[in-house]
């Protein structure tokens, strides 16, 4: 990512119901100027946990064809502090890669991004013996004290989690006779595995397999009497499957769909009026799960069956709206006023979780009768842009 922008006010309506108080938009690097090719190599070392990281990238822009490929890797050992010294099982490893391909022509552009994120993260438990040494369970099931050798290096211990995330995004912009069309589609597969037992190092206790498909299509009308208007639809399809031996959230299917209208106009080159309204629907189907005394899934008719997750079908509807004014006082200051109403439907964890979350040291219990979250927000702000060159000269 090259930079991050904060979207508040009417513009956030284009991003769906979860942007209840604004949107963080992570933006990819801009394309190189036409005809340029650039290779970048960077590296980094941190002494506290002996982190070593490096990244290699190649980017170019030839005849309207753009590309950016990147590979990065970093690994860290146990961190240390003044109270504990080296903290056992606090290291991590990452291997990441991405490829961006794009074509820019007179009709618009089409961009494709493929990324792979792979993280192995040790989880600190902090248990100690009577001498204050960190202890852990070995492959034989015995509790042993961590030695100086155990505290050094880049070992993957127990418990730890592995995250493998693959993303594919297609971003398209078409110039039409009477306007323009944005069409964005994305698919993500996220696998999160948690390993607890050193005697079965390849058997995950928790294994969430999450698939997500996002879609956003927006038509931007040709500017008319100074008004710039857009209409669009967007939403998400999501499916979670549990493939491990423990269960914190149920298997479920989710479908979001929403439509919006957004418009704005600038008066006298100083005052901009912007407003919009959006309607969203979220439908969720959650699967029931029964476990026996050994915590294994069984039929609900089994005599030892105990209900872990209840089945339910939920549908949530909501309207979001926003109206804002922006007044440019002078070239260095802007005054903004905005009033809005936001909507957010509850997610699967909030509705149905029932299990221990090792990474946060919490036992999480959902509540199936949660209602949608509604917000009313009033923003008044003044933005001042200081004269940086004068400030630097004065302080030099």
CATH topology: Maltoporin, Chain A
Counting helices, strands and paired strands, the structural category is mainly beta
The oligomeric state is single chain
Strand content: over 45%
Largest sheet: 14 strands, antiparallel
Question: How many distinct domains?
Answer: 1
| Residue share in helix | under 10%
* Rg on CA atoms, Å: 26 Å
Under the CATH scheme, the architecture is Beta Barrel
Q: Please report the number of helical segments.
A: 3
Strand elements, count: 25
Q: Given the C-alpha coordinates, what overall shape results?
A: globular
Question: How are the SSEs placed, and which strands pair?
Answer:
Blueprint (H helix, E strand, L loop, with lengths): L2 E5 L15 E5 L9 E10 L4 E12 L2 E12 L3 E2 L3 E2 L5 E14 L2 E15 L12 E3 L5 E3 L2 H4 L8 E16 L3 E17 L10 E16 L5 E16 L9 E16 L3 E16 L2 E3 L5 E2 L7 E4 L2 E19 L2 E12 L3 H5 L1 E4 L4 E4 L7 E12 L3 H8 L1
Antiparallel strand pairs: 1-2, 3-4, 4-5, 5-8, 6-7, 8-9, 9-12, 10-11, 12-13, 13-14, 14-15, 15-16, 16-17, 17-21, 18-19, 18-20, 21-22, 22-25, 23-24
Brief overview:
The chain has 396 residues and is mostly beta strands. It is built from three helices and 25 strands.
